[in-house]
Design a protein that fits this description.
The relative contact order is 0.19. The longest helix has about 55 residues. This protein is mainly alpha-helical. The protein contains 14 helices and no strands.
């Protein structure tokens, strides 16, 4: 009789522990879903920003001025929220972001946009490798499979541009190096974001990034003026209301996407984040079709499907509660 009395409470305690674990896992799952929504929203904003920036450059606006206005304006927007205790992580992330964007800007002067986009998108493959080097642990198989499938998707989306454009070793190399800095930014943000509040860290990153990027862009503009070129000044003076509206939208979306990325990466690890970020070409293609009446080729549609598949596989985690419950039974 005493044996039965002991066994029943032990089973009940195990059941209660299992219920608590299930509740915690459900809470984490809900947080991951919200993080995925936040990061996906950020990627849509990046795709819209790319489309707006492309059309601003078509009007003849100087790329250095667009960079200075975009990052400098966002830095001013977050300046009232800037606090010195966030300066070190903000500077670290700001430098990584600057290196990636500066290298990409230089690559676009030497190679086709489609090739630059392809090589910078390789950050989705580099992120698991960078995180493995930083944390000194092997990436999970699901991240490896998801990254490889996403890489194939990026290739098929960029295939036409890669085939029809000429190879530029220097331009391609700069874009490839930019991908490394973007991957390092994702991993570093994944490490730093849980330590700080979202608004404080985002403000520090945007202010530091704004100072660095704007200074670099203004130096480029000044060097052009020193050499006798007045193209930059003329393009600014010719800017109309639509151009300044576009710049204001770029500033707003850069600020909003920055908040969403910092908050989202609190919930999701860098490898899962990189897989979500790889969806930017998909949103860019959809924006091109819906807003600019562009046409999609079958290879692009197939590539987009592979990107979604890679994102799904990479973020699919085994359910630990199922194995626990089976072991208890």
């Amino acid at each position: 009789m005493s044996v039965g009395f002991v066994v029943v409470p032990c089973r009940l305690r195990r059941r209660r522990t299992l219920c608590v674990n299930v509740a915690v896992d459900d809470s984490r799952t809900a947080g991951r879903r919200l993080g995925s929504v936040a990061l996906t929203s950020a990627t849509v904003m990046w795709a819209l920003s790319n489309a707006i920036q492309r059309h601003l450059l078509i009007t003849g606006l100087n790329p250095s001025f667009v960079t200075a206005a975009r990052f400098g304006g966002t830095g001013l927007l977050f300046l009232p929220s800037f606090r010195l205790r966030y300066f070190i992580p903000g500077l670290k992330l700001g430098l990584l972001s600057f290196c990636g964007n500066a290298l990409l800007s230089m690559a676009l002067r030497l190679t086709a946009a489609s090739r630059a986009s392809f090589f910078t998108s390789l950050s989705v493959v580099m992120t698991p490798l960078v995180e493995a080097a930083v944390r000194k642990e092997m990436p999970k198989p699901r991240h490896i499979y998801g990254s490889l499938i996403s890489f194939l998707g990026i290739y098929f989306i960029s295939r036409e541009g890669l085939i029809n454009s000429s190879i530029s070793p220097l331009g391609d190399g700069l874009a490839f190096t930019a991908a490394f800095f973007f991957a390092s930014y994702i991993v570093t943000l994944g490490i730093e974001s849980p330590k700080y509040d979202t608004k404080g860290l985002t403000s520090a990153v945007r202010v530091c990034n704004g100072i660095i990027c704007s200074s670099w862009a203004l130096i480029v503009i000044a060097l052009g003026l020193k050499s006798g070129s007045t193209v930059v000044v003329e393009s600014i003076l010719r800017s109309g209301v639509l151009v300044w509206t576009g710049i204001a939208l770029l500033i707003a979306m850069l600020g909003a996407s920055g908040l969403l990325q910092v908050w989202g990466q609190k919930k999701i690890n860098p490898n899962d984040s990189a897989l979500i970020f790889s969806l930017v070409p998909v949103w860019s293609a959809l924006i091109g079709v819906t807003m600019f009446k562009e046409t999609l080729k079958r290879t692009s549609i197939f590539g987009g499907a592979l990107l979604f598949l890679g994102c799904f596989i990479g973020q699919r985690e085994p359910n630990p509660n199922l194995s626990k419950q089976q072991s208890e039974d």
